[in-house]
Amino acid sequence: xxxxxxxxxxxxxxxxxxxxxxxxxxxxxxxxxxxxxxxxxxxxxxxxxxxxxxxxxxxxxxxxxxxxxxxxxxxxxxxxxxxxxxxxxxxxxxxxxx
Length: 98
Prior knowledge:
- There is one protein chain.
- The chain is mostly loops and 98 residues long.
- It has one helix spanning 13-25.
- It contains one helix and no strands.
- The longest helix is centred in the first third of the chain and has 13 residues, at 13-25.
- The chain is globular and about 35 Å long.
- The mean pLDDT is 92.
C-alpha cells in the first residue's frame, strides 16, 4: 500500500491548495490547512510548483518527486517517504521529519 489516492480528498488539489494559501495568508483566520497525511503523492505533476508552506503530510508518499526549490517551510512530514526525491535548494526551515 503506497497511501490513499488524492481522489479521496473530495476536492481537487488546486482547490485544496487555494484554501491552504488563504489559510497561510490570513494566519489561520480563513481557509483551511492542507492535510495530505497518508496520501500517495508520487504521481502529482510539478508538485514543487505548489506553495506547500505549513502543510501536514505525516506518512505521505513523495517517492521520486522532483522537489527542487520547493517551498516546504514549517511543514510536518513525520514518517513521510522521500526516497529518491531531488530536494536540492528546497526550503525546509522549521519542518518536522520525525
